[in-house]
Write a structure and sequence with these properties.
Family: Belongs to the sulfotransferase 1 family.
Distance between the termini: 41 Å
Keywords: Cytoplasm, Transferase
Main location: cytoplasm
Radius of gyration: 18 Å
Subcellular location: Cytoplasm
EC number: 2.8.2.-
Order of helices and strands: HEHHHEHHHHHH
Number of domains: 1
CATH topology: Rossmann fold
CATH architecture: 3-Layer(aba) Sandwich
Length: about 200
């Protein structure tokens, strides 16, 4: 396709084709706090019939912490992209900030792409990218995907979209275990997440 092209990927940094960097591509990376990410991924893996069954939450949490989930270790993934942002044209966004200030974050994306968004366009984007709007939109909620691929009876693809839902899933012991793993795996990094708003 002729440029500009838009690609979406879940690849870890080390698997991105070298041409991304050779061609000086712009990358927008969105990261979510690890606890909410683990819970969301657990429910996604439950409903996604093409992925291995996640087992119970206790088992899944250990699998998540060990990096044994599809696309590998969350810790390695977010840290590698965070560390690369000073070497490449990477806009590193946080799900929590998108939730807290969608307008400001959308403006940030526009500026990164060299576009100033007129007010009506900005308002339309804010409206159409809200969780509520996307949950009702078959092009975003994957409700048209057959249940032998994504079984919405198990869990909807667009489940809650909140920040801090991990508190309904984690036990205190699991949260403390997760925090200890975070401290070890992210030692020396200035990458920080909000686990509640």
């Amino acid at each position: 396709m002729p440029p500009p092209r838009t690609l979406k990927t879940h690849l870890p940094l080390e698997l991105v084709p070298p041409s991304f960097w050779e061609q000086d591509c712009k990358v927008i990376y969105v990261a979510r706090n690890p606890k909410d990410n683990a819970v969301s991924y657990f429910h996604f893996q439950r409903m996604n019939q093409w992925l291995p069954a996640p087992g119970c939450w206790d088992q899944y949490l250990e699998t998540f912490l060990s990096g044994g989930v599809p696309w590998g270790s969350w810790f390695d993934h977010v840290r590698a992209w965070w560390d690369a942002r000073d070497k490449h044209r990477i806009l590193y966004l946080f799900y929590e900030e998108l939730h807290k200030d969608p307008r400001g974050e959308i403006q940030k994306v526009g500026r990164f792409l060299g576009r100033e968004l007129p007010e009506p366009v900005l308002e339309t984007i804010v409206e159409h990218t809200s969780f509520e709007s996307m949950r009702e939109n078959p092009m975003a909620n994957y409700s048209t995907v057959p249940p032998f691929i994504l079984d919405h009876a198990v869990s909807p693809f667009m489940r809650k979209g909140t920040v801090g839902d991990w508190k309904t899933q984690f036990t205190v012991a699991q949260s403390e275990r997760f925090d200890a793993e975070w401290a070890q795996r992210m030692e020396g990094s200035d990458l920080r997440f909000h686990t509640r708003l």
